[in-house]
């Protein structure tokens, strides 16, 4: 074998190695995952991370928190969730990781997560928008925004013209009217058609099971319930084995790719959630969602939402937020699904409050002078 041939073969192998290093579709993606908070233990989280790292070319997984018995890169700022989330945010903002998967994270009002499931009827993937957080304190407005957020995630997954359905829950018809007017104003929406005889874009339970639309729009609490059912219906409920988790937080100006899993999520879901966030990075989610929001605003989104809230002001008026003040006192013991409702209850009583993350999990934050009164109000609210 001549030296020239050896040189050429060597160059070919170097190109192959470089391609594997960068990944099949471009530069490597580094996704973090926080390790504490799971009901199944740290070992289950680590197992899910290892599954993701071994199954996706071009992916590096970084563990954040205690991470025993693994060869994956691990960064351990301690065993307090607040410290771990602070480290996660630092790594994201500095660009060391491109996205992250975590539990218990409290997004600001206006940001909610877009989940992804595998439907049992026909084995189709379907996006559920949304599953945690709150796009708005006004139910119907939130669902309209959820539609835009879901479309953005679908496009980041490579669906150029995703179909959209609206689950038949309270406010669905109002949401349908707003979205139709938004479409008339120039925002492209490709409505799905129900499998039921009467058709239409308002979806029934049959459509959920069959995965009829690419994006199924609903309010967050219903979406959270759907995620749990789709993820754990084969296991009896205590172990989420199917799907991709509760998805990335989406909202105008929110520029971190942070995906949510449940305390009940098992290793297969954790692995898929990491893969999901890698796909969001590769698919330019942050750019796409800002473009979608901008297109919707040009089509009259804010005007239409204002009219919607005025239309429904009789029964579901948005709560006015009291003047902002420093909040340093923590109130624990509120279920994570009730945090947003509890905060709005305090706002209604004239107390400024925020959601947050303490060492023991989700908390409500108040000013010192409001803490005792807030505790009394919340004690009555949760029946304790």
From TrEMBL:
Active site residues of this protein: 359
EC number: 1.21.4.2
GO molecular function: acyltransferase activity, transferring groups other than amino-acyl groups; glycine reductase activity
UniProt keyword annotations, A-Z: Oxidoreductase
Gene Ontology biological process terms from the UniProt entry: fatty acid biosynthetic process
UniProt-listed NCBIfam families: reduct_C_alpha (NF040747)
Protein name (record): Glycine/sarcosine/betaine reductase complex component C subunit alpha
Organism of provenance: Koleobacter methoxysyntrophicus
């Amino acid at each position: 074998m001549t030296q020239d041939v050896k040189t050429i073969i060597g160059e070919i192998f170097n190109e192959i190695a470089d391609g594997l290093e960068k990944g099949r579709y471009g530069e490597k993606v580094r996704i973090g995952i926080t390790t504490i908070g799971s009901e199944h233990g740290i070992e289950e989280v680590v197992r899910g991370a290892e599954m993701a790292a071994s199954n996706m070319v071009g992916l590096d997984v970084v563990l954040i928190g205690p991470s025993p018995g693994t060869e994956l890169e691990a960064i351990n700022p301690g065993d307090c969730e607040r410290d771990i989330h602070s480290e996660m945010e630092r790594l994201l903002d500095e660009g060391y990781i491109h996205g992250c998967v975590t539990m218990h994270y409290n997004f600001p009002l206006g940001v909610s997560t877009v989940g992804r499931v595998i439907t049992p009827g026909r084995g189709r993937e379907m996006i559920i928008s949304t599953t945690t957080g709150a796009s708005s304190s006004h139910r119907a407005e939130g669902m309209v925004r959820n539609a835009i957020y879901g479309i953005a995630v679908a496009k980041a997954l490579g669906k150029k013209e995703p179909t959209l359905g609206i689950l038949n829950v309270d406010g669905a018809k109002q949401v349908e009217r707003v979205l139709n007017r938004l479409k008339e104003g120039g925002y492209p929406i490709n409505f799905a058609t129900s499998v039921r005889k009467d058709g239409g874009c308002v979806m029934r339970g049959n459509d959920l099971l069959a995965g009829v639309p690419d994006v199924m729009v609903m309010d967050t609490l219903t979406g959270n319930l759907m995620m749990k059912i789709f993820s754990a219906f084969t296991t009896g409920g205590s172990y989420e084995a199917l799907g991709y988790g509760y998805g990335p937080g989406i909202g105008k100006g929110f520029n971190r790719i942070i995906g949510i899993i449940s305390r009940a999520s098992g290793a297969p879901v954790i692995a898929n959630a990491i893969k999901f966030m890698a796909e969001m990075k590769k698919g330019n989610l942050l750019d796409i969602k800002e473009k979608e929001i901008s297109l919707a605003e040009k089509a009259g989104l804010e005007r239409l939402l204002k009219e919607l809230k005025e239309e429904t002001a009789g029964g579901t008026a948005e709560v006015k937020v009291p003047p902002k003040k420093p909040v340093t006192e923590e109130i624990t013991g509120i279920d994570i699904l009730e945090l947003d409702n509890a905060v709005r209850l305090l706002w209604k009583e004239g107390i400024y409050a925020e959601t947050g993350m303490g060492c023991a999990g989700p908390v409500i934050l108040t000013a010192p002078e409001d803490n005792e009164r807030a505790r009394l109000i919340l004690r009555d609210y949760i029946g304790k």
